[in-house]
Design a protein that fits this description.
The chain has 195 residues and is mainly alpha-helical. The protein has helices at 10-23, 33-45, 49-54, 56-67, 78-81, 83-108, 139-165, 171-174, 176-193; strands spanning 117-120, 124-127. It is globular, with a radius of gyration of 18 Å. The chain binds iron/sulfur cluster. Iron/sulfur cluster is lined by residues 38, 51, 55, 57-58, 171-172, 175, 177-178.
Length: 195
């Protein structure tokens, strides 16, 4: 059996992240690491090593669906693999992401009020006020945390559903970060070839 490396345990970080956001929403800011690190790795090295090694979320799905046997291990439907779905989902995801940033801006500019809710699947508003104490941070900082945690929780729930229904890492087939880093790698390597 291959020896375990430190990065094989990053699934703990992903699980802990969701738990911490349940107690204090400001921990949601840590999730930016999962946003910037894959972009930096793909832009600098032109590889998807973040997905292959360092993504705790992918590991978590593998663990729950594989070792824990929670996945039906069925083939993922062809439409989820298709370009139109993956790129369409990427566009939709980032549209919602920028909408979240805009709501943060409104609170920052004083044109909106802080909403202490976590929005699941871009639809269901869950009260989450226990996780915010208003201690020493500006309202926009908290608004971003609520919004970003919503994004992370929504993608985790979608990933868990597809893990249960299909293969453990089915989420990785249409994960917006995976699609985006793939595009960055393609562009980077294309540029290298043309130099
Ligand atoms: S595709 Fe998404 S969830 Fe899967 S390993 Fe890459 S970043 Fe992680």
């Amino acid at each position: 059996m291959a020896q375990k490396r430190w990065y094989d345990y990053l699934w703990i970080f992903s699980a802990l992240y969701l738990v911490l956001g349940f107690f204090n929403i400001l921990f949601a800011w840590i999730g930016l690491l999962c946003f910037f690190i894959p972009i930096i790795i793909s832009a600098v090295f032109g590889t998807k090593s973040y997905c292959g090694r360092y993504c705790g979320r992918g590991q978590l799905f593998q663990l729950l669906g594989g070792k824990c046997g929670l996945s039906r291990q069925k083939e993922i439907p062809a439409f989820l693999r298709s370009h139109w779905f993956r790129y369409g989902f990427l566009i939709f995801f980032f549209t919602m992401f920028f909408n979240m940033l805009y709501n943060t801006y409104l609170v920052f500019a004083g044109a909106g009020t802080l909403k202490q809710v976590v929005t699941l699947l871009w639809t269901f508003k869950l009260p989450w006020n226990w996780a915010y104490t208003a201690a020493g941070v500006a309202p926009w900082v908290a608004q971003f945390a609520f919004g970003f945690y919503s994004v992370m929780l929504t993608s985790t729930v979608l990933g868990l559903i597809t893990m249960l229904l299909f293969r453990p890492r089915s989420w990785c087939v249409y994960c917006p970060m995976g699609t985006m880093t793939q595009l960055i790698c393609t562009a980077k390597n294309h540029k290298k070839i043309n130099l």
